[in-house]
């Protein structure tokens, strides 16, 4: 049987998936790994963890199939974008990877905007914020000049892992765009932007199409994992671009809501439409673009609550073989809509759209003696939904078509959370059967080696919807009232956030 393999590296863990050419799952595996938060707003990971997770998940997938990796046609690696892995002349990792949700480069963003903002937006199509590689590298140059001077090669998460598999040195157009060092209109690295931080163009990888075969599995990796030696490996793309593809978003005007480590509301377009409050990327579906509005903390906020407020329940559930998130959902479902006036702002790692404030902080607003754990759990789910609804308002500058919405990501596995999003948005929401980056990457690998004629054929053959959520008009009206309060609180908080940041970082 012919099969395709996708491996995705999210912020919280690695997901590997093998599918057949009809989109049926043959094997899957997941390996969790942590981020390091050494200071408020900092987020780093050790790249060695990714390689270990790759080997473990690939081996697990191979063991789940009677014929192992027999019949596998190609492999794709996808990952969160913006994350620069820096290598010295001996190909050693110089320092832990600064992740996309790290907020330390706020001052660098301010100065980049003041000195070069118009030029950066003209070339890179986005305004500098701490998410992007450009200000992260500027921070490194100023605070760790000895490490900056050692940079011989710069890779992004998926490219570092893929290079481990094949030995190549390249990236794709989506990850290149995620660096804010790239001129997507000219399809090349921007000498003008790189000069702003004295970054030599020679350290940057070649840029290829996402579906292009760029290497093959080396003998050493085949022996370590069980993958066939010589298996074609495509360039791959960002996790979001792969997820949107896996959700069937292949036509202009489709909207995808992502409930993952971060939360996204994405719109598919036929051309670049830069906007100061959104992100603009070439899409994994060749010839199309997608506009991203994003909140920094989504499922990661629920994970924070699990670890901070439910440690005993987590330990008990693990002993009993149950999922603690199901328990948290049950408690949240038992609380009233609106959590009796408890509102959560999910700015645990600063915030992107629409505030773009690295000093933003999360809060539970309206706490009283009536509230219990269930209210806090429900308020968190609703607060993230409000943050995504905030993002949706920006997309109204691009389109009036708001009826074709798909929900994806780990958080979408929760029927409660998906229904809350549906009611907050007041729009029908569809859920695909297999909307994961690893699934989308596998499909893209199939396009790359000719198993499908193009992306449209791959989507039509393999992508199916499993559930549709319909909004309750009464619930939407109540949520609109709460959202107005949510916005009012957020809009009054920036001076307080700045004071807190000064104290916390002293």
Mean pLDDT: 95
Query: Distance N terminus to C terminus?
Result: 60 Å
Shape: globular
* SS elements, strand count: 23
Main sheet characteristics: 7 strands, mixed
Helical content (DSSP H or I, runs of 4+):
40-55%
Q: What is the number of helices?
A: 18
Approximately what portion of the residues adopt beta-strand conformation?
15-25%
Main-sheet strand order equals: 17-18-16-15-21-22-23
| Helical/strand content category | alpha+beta
Low-confidence regions = none
Q: What is the alpha-carbon Rg in Å?
A: 22 Å
Features:
four-stranded mixed beta sheet; seven-stranded mixed beta sheet; 18 helices; alpha+beta; 41% helix; 506 residues
Give the structure's gist in a few sentences.
The chain is of the alpha+beta class. The chain has 18 helices and 23 strands. Strands 17-18-16-15-21-22-23 form a seven-stranded mixed sheet, sandwiched between helices.
């Amino acid at each position: 049987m012919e099969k395709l393999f996708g491996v995705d590296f999210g912020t919280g863990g690695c997901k590997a998936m093998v599918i057949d050419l009809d989109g049926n799952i043959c094997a899957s595996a997941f390996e969790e790994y942590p981020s390091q938060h050494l200071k408020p707003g900092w987020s780093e990971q050790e790249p060695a963890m990714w390689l270990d997770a790759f080997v473990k998940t690939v081996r697990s997938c191979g063991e789940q199939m009677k014929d192992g990796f027999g019949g596998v046609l190609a492999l794709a690696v996808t990952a969160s974008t913006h994350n620069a892995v820096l290598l010295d002349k001996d190909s050693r990792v110089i320092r832990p990877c600064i992740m996309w949700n790290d907020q330390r480069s706020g001052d660098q963003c301010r100065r980049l905007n003041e000195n070069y903002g118009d030029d950066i937006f003209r070339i890179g199509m986005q305004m500098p914020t701490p998410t992007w590689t450009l200000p992260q590298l500027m921070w490194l140059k100023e605070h760790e000049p000895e490490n900056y001077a050692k940079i011989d090669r710069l890779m992004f998460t998926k490219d570092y892992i893929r290079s481990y598999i094949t030995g190549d040195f390249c990236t794709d157009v989506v990850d290149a765009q995620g660096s804010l060092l790239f001129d997507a209109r000219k399809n090349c690295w921007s000498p003008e932007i790189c000069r702003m931080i004295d970054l030599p163009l020679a350290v940057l990888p070649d840029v290829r199409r996402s579906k292009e075969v760029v290497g093959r599995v080396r003998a050493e990796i085949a022996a370590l994992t069980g993958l066939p030696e010589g298996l074609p490996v495509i360039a791959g793309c960002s996790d979001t671009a792969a997820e949107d593809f896996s959700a069937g978003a292949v036509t202009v005007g489709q909207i995808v809501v992502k409930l993952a480590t971060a939360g996204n509301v994405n719109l598919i377009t036929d051309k670049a439409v830069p906007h100061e409050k959104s992100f603009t990327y070439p899409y994994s579906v060749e010839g199309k673009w997608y506009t991203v509005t994003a909140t920094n903390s989504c499922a990661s906020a629920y994970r924070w609550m699990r670890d901070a407020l439910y440690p005993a329940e987590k330990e008990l559930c693990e002993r009993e073989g149950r999922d603690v998130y199901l328990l948290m959902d049950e408690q949240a479902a038992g609380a009233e809509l609106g959590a009796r006036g408890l509102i959560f702002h999910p700015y645990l790692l600063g915030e992107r759209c629409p505030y773009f404030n690295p000093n933003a902080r999360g809060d539970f607003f309206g706490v009283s003696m009536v509230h219990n754990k269930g209210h806090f759990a429900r308020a968190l789910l609703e607060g993230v939904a409000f943050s995504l609804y905030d993002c949706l308002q920006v997309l109204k500058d691009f389109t009036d078509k708001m009826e074709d919405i798909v929900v994806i990501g780990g958080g979408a596995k929760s029927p409660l959370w998906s229904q809350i999003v549906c009611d907050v948005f007041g729009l029908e929401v569809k859920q695909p059967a297999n909307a994961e980056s690893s699934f989308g990457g596998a499909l893209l690998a199939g396009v790359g080696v000719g198993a499908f004629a193009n992306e449209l054929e791959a989507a039509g053959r393999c992508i199916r919807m499993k559930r549709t959520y319909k909004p309750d008009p009464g619930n939407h009206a109540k949520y609109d009232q709460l959202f107005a309060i949510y916005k009012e609180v957020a809009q009054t908080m920036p001076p307080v956030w700045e004071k807190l940041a000064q104290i916390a970082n002293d």
